[in-house]
From TrEMBL:
Annotated TM spans: 12-35, 78-99, 111-133, 139-159, 190-211, 245-266
Domain ABC transmembrane type-1 per the UniProt entry, residue ranges: 74-266
Protein's membrane topology: Multi-pass membrane protein
An individual GO BP term: maltodextrin transmembrane transport
Protein name in the entry: ABC transporter permease
Tree of life domain: Bacteria
């Protein structure tokens, strides 16, 4: 009995060591970008690899704010992210609750259709959306981009939150209805507080998608002043003659910081919000 316990502890220790090593290996590109962002000179492709910068400087970070419209890119990304979260979550929460609690004709067919639509690559619809936006004068419009993002993430949001709503005992709702609560009051006062982990995690997933999205942002935003952070990062590397890898690395680090802060703030909700959402379909 004691031998089995020792073998189990050794196995868990070795497994933890392997996981730690994998984490460090995965962090190598991030550490290299961080080192490059505080380096003086464009030596990203040099054969010599150093763990510390040869000459430490914060000039690249100051240049991002002074020489490049980074604040404008940040503003556009924040507006698009918040607008998409509000629209996507506002529609997805109600739809997910309806699919979870009500049994009406065509319910399963609609869910399967949504899943099928989500399987198609977004790039296939880009030409049609571009023509539609051009006819409606919605190119270079944040509203148009928010509609695209919200439509793209609604399917994921509905499926994830529906699974979480399925785990909430229906007896809680029946007791509230006996007390005279209407459907909207029941959703607002009872269901939403119980589903907080799933809602927060789903909203953050939507936020991360919009924050990092590049293809639609650079296709439908044709003006330099309407670029998001992803489009702005591309512009930093668009010219072969003025390309600066330290400047690009500094911008990439700055772009990642807000998402990291949000992630650490909601970390306690991540496990319950994602796992419970996949319990039932």
């Amino acid at each position: 009995m004691g031998g089995n316990k020792i073998k189990r502890r050794i196995g868990l220790t070795l497994l933890n060591v392997v996981f730690i090593i994998l984490c460090f290996v995965g962090m190598i590109p991030i550490l290299y970008a961080l080192i490059l962002s505080v380096s003086d000179g464009n030596n990203a492709l040099s054969s010599s690899l150093s763990l510390l910068p040869k000459k430490f400087t914060l000039h690249n970070y100051s240049a991002i704010f002074i020489e490049e419209p980074f604040v404008l890119w940040l503003k556009n990304s924040v507006i698009l992210s918040i607008g998409t979260c509000v629209l996507a979550m506002g529609t997805s929460v109600v739809a997910a609750y309806s699919f979870s609690r009500h049994r009406y004709k065509g319910r399963k067919s609609i869910l399967k259709l949504l899943l099928l639509l989500n399987a198609f690559p977004q790039i296939l619809s880009m030409f049609a959306i571009f023509r539609l936006f051009k006819e409606c004068n919605m190119l270079n419009s944040r509203v148009g981009l928010v509609i695209i993002y919200a439509g793209s993430m609604c399917i994921f949001s509905i499926w994830n939150m529906k699974g979480y709503f399925d785990t909430i005992p229906i007896e809680i709702e029946e007791a509230s209805k006996i007390d005279g609560a209407s459907d909207m009051k029941l959703l607002r006062k009872v269901i939403l507080p119980l589903a907080r982990p799933a809602i927060i995690v789903t909203a953050v997933m939507v936020l991360i998608f919009v924050w990092n999205e590049y293809l639609f942002a650079t296709t439908f935003m044709l003006n330099d002043k309407s670029y998001t952070l992803a489009g702005g990062l591309y512009q930093l590397q668009a010219n072969d003659y003025s390309r600066s890898w330290p400047l690009f690395s500094a911008a990439a680090i700055l772009v990642s910081i807000p998402i990291l802060i949000v992630f650490f703030c909601i970390q306690k909700y991540m496990v319950s919000g994602l796992t419970a959402g996949g319990v039932k379909g």
